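<instruction>
Derive C-alpha cells from the sequence
<data>
Labelled lines for chain and fold
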Amino acid sequence: MLRSRLVIPCVCGVLLAAGSFAAAEEVANWPQFRGPNSDGVVAVGHLPATWDATQNVRWRTDLAGRGWSSPVVWGNRVFLTTVVRLGDAEEPKRGLYFGGERPEPPTDPHQWRVVCLDLDTGETLWDRLVHEGEPASSIHLKNSFASETPVVDAQRLYAYFGNLGVFCLDHDGEVLWEVPIEPSRMKLGWGTASSPALHDGVLYIVNDNEDASYILALDAASGEARWKTDRDEPSNWATPYVWTNDQRTEIVTSGRNLARSYDLAGNVLWELGDNSSIAIPTPFAVDGLLYLTSGYVLDKRKPLYAIQSGATGDITLPEDATSGGPIVWSQPDAGPYNTSPLVYDGLVYVLKDQGFLLCYDAATGEEVYDRQRLPEGRAFTASPWANDGHIFCLNEYGTTYVVRAGAEFELLHTNSLDEDAMCMATPAAVGNRLLIRTATSLYCLEDGATLDE
C-alpha cells in the first residue's frame, strides 16, 4: 500500500558552507533526465568540445557506491543518488551480454544515499542517508540500485529508488516526506530504471513490472497520492514525458504492449501498439512533434515514430504503413535499445548501442545518412547530447566521440577520461560546464580549466 510519511527535518551529513544557491533566473538549471526539455539539447552555454583526464577539467570528485542516475543541477548545487554496498561487489563487464542476471537479492546491507556537491568546486555540501538495509529485489550485474535520475525544482529534490520509495528533500538535505514503494518482480531480475517526471506540482512515476504495473501521481509538496492508474504492461524502463503541446498537456509513456498517453487525471488519451519487446528510451517533443521509440537489439521491429498533437484512441498503424493519422512518419528499424534519440537543428540522431550513428530528417523521417560507425568501444548506454553545432556520444569506456552536426557525418574529436571506470549515466550540462558521471567519480568539464592532480 502506498502511503506518505512527513518527516521532521534533522541535521545529517556535512554542514553546509555559508551562502545560498543562486536563483533560477541567474543560473541555468538541469532539473531532470536529459535536461529542462528532456531532449538532451544544451541550448544555452558553450561546452568544451575536447578534453582528457586533466585538460578542460574543472574538478573531479570521487563517489562512493554505485549509481547510474544522472546528476541534476539547480543553481550552484549538483544533486545525485548512489547506493553503497557494505560488502564485496561483483564488477560488471562492458557491452551487451547474456549471463548478467542475478535473480536473488544481495544479502549484505546497502545504503541508499542522496548527495549534494558545489557546482564551482565539486566539494560535498551534504550526504544524506535515506535508507539502510538489505535490498528487497535483485538487479542485473550492469544495473544499479540508484539508476533513476532524481528531479529538482526551486524548493525540493525528489529522489526515486525503484522497489524502495520516493524521498523528497529540501536543498539543504532535510527529508520532507517519503513514500514507500512496494517491491515488484522485474523481468529476469534486471531491476528498475525509470525516472520520475515533474509538472505543475505533481510528480509522475511509471512502475512497469511483472506483478502489477501502474502510473502514479504524487503531490509534490506532501507526497500524497493524487491518483493511480493500472497499466497492462510487463517490465519496462522508459521515463515518462510530460508533453505540453498546442492542444493540451499529456503524460506520454512508452511500453512493450502499448505506448500510451494520459491526461492529467490519469485517463488514457491515445495508445500505440506494434512496439519493440523492451522499452527503455524516453519520449520527447521538439517543434511540435513527439518522438517515441523502442528497439531491443534482438527484435526485428525497432520503430521510431514522429507524432503530432491531438491524437485520440488507438493510433496503431496498419501493417506495412509508415504514416497515417497523427503519425507523421515512422522508421521501422531505427529505434535504439538503451539510448534516447536526439533532435537538433532539424535532424534526428539515433545512437545504437553497438556504436552506430544514424540521421533522419526530423520533419519527414527521410534518411539523411545510414549507420556510421564510431571507431572503438562498441558499447553505448548513455544518451547523446548536443551543443554549439556538435553531437556528443559517450561510450561505456569513458570515451566521448564528438560529431559535427549536419547532413554529412564527420567525426571531429575523440575524448578519453583515461580511467578504467565505466560510464553508463547520461551527462548533465549547465552553462559552460559538462558533468560526466563514471562508476567512481563525477567530472566537471569547462573550457580553459586544468585539473591539478
Summary: Residues 401 and 414 are 5 Å apart (CA to CA). The radius of gyration is 21 Å. Residues 5-450 form a domain with the Methylamine Dehydrogenase; Chain H fold (CATH 2.130.10.10). The chain has no helices and 34 strands.
